[in-house]
Request: fold
Amino acid sequence: MDTTAQLLWGILFGGIGLGYFIYGKKQRAVVPLLAGIGLLIVPYFIVNIFILVITEVALIILPYFIKI
Reply:
């Protein structure tokens, strides 16, 4: 387990998640809001870096395909 890589990926995706969360809250858009919360929370639970990056990229792309 490389904790430095996990920390850096978590900071990167956390910043993106915060942006999604703020955007979703201001625009009252559910999908970006939930994706932002997911981007903020997921790095705490996934230890494998490869799976973490794949999951986070999927959460980043999700609001572009799902419009509610």
Q: What stands out?
A: Residues 3-27 form the longest helix (25 residues). The chain has a mean pLDDT of 92. DSSP finds three helices and no strands in the chain. The helical segments are 3-27, 30-41, 49-65.
